[in-house]
Amino acid sequence: MQRHRNLWIGFAAVHLWLVWELRYAPNHPLFDVTHVYRPWVRTGLNAGHWVGIDSAWVYPIGALVPMVAVAAFGLQHYGLQWLALVTALDAVAFAGLTRAGARGRVAAYWWLGFLAALGPIALGRIDAITIPLVIVALLILDRRPGIAAALLTFAAFVKVWPIAVLGAVLVAGPARRRIMAGAGTMGVVVVGTSIALGASIRTLSSFLTMQSGRGLQLESPAAVPWLWLKSVGSMHVDVVWRPGIRTFEVVGSGISAVEHALSAIMILIFGVVAALGIRASRASTSPAAFLGPLAVALTSALIVTNKVGSPQYQTWIAAPIVLGLLQQGRGGPSFRLAASLGLLIAALTQVVYPWGYHGLVAAHPASVAAISLRDALLVALLALSIKQLVQAGSPESVPA
Questions:
Q1: CA nearest 68: which of 35, 92, 44, 48?
Q2: CB of 307 within 8 A of CB of 222?
Q3: Which of 60, 74, 9, 29 is nearest to 211 (CA)?
Q4: Which of 23, 101, 290, 366 is deepest in the core (most CB within 10 A)?
Q5: What global pTM score does this model have?
Q6: Quick check: 153 pLDDT over 70?
Q7: What is the pLDDT of residues 109-151, one digit of tens each?
Q8: CA–CA separation, 19 vs 302, rounded Å?
Q9: Is 58 exposed, middle or buried (0-12, 13-18, 19+ CB in 10 A)?
């Protein structure tokens, strides 16, 4: 009882701290919720025009569900209602971790540390909805693989990244048919309901083309070399504001080629990691030996090779690392180093956004150094996970 009480005290303290940061931190970390999500919902409720259904949209169609749900009690206090929904979802996932034995409690404490280190962006974007959904899905994976797959699929319709975890589960899962059935059923429900409400294939798939048409965002790992050039006074690099997508992009010589190459690099690394996962599944007697590293590798690959790279993308690594910590107690590799890297990545992300964002826009050396170190740690996390996958695929090796 004492251990559970301490955990819940920590949960309350961390979420209250994050809410305080959202109120007082610079650069308006709740801006997207109150000035982007709320107008979208208001337009839908008042004018009957829904993004993703009646027009192209930057998000998958499932993102409308939490945005509209928050408006159930009106639009006046939309920001507070958003925080209440995210906190409630976090509480459900957290409760599941506290009941998952000693490893679950370790994972719960780690997740609290990660949220505190990441700062207000951990609650202030649509990505925050997906993290607890994925954690709950992973907690019930053994008992209810079909429901877990359905949850992961719905989460991917909110923000695409959970497709990496679903892919890892498909590679590792002994109940592959039930996983595929659950994922397929949820996909049919979401797409079918959207079409019944007036969506078309064009609007449902528009988030893919809208993302692919974007430039190299300021926070993308690939932007770091040009930020260093700007920091030393190069006249051939600039940071520009794109009002249509409300973000800063880096422009300069050679960037266009990198933008076009990143998609191919992402597919290549994703494919290599998936192949290593399949190899590990054939060599290992238990999915625990490689499921955590596979989920982390696939997820971190999506971040490292992404030309958008928004600060909230770092939230994605939380659920796969939680999975690895849980699987460690079932014969999986040690996740101490991966968990430590995750905390450092989160903390450096908060240094960059919201506290040091003005410095990053101006390419001040301290801010560029902070994001460079953060991105180096992301690459290290990817490399560590790939190393563990390789070891899991070699029966004579001992997982590290």
A1: 44
A2: yes
A3: 60
A4: 290
A5: 0.96
A6: yes
A7: 999 999 999 999 999 999 999 999 999 999 999 999 999 999 9
A8: 28
A9: middle
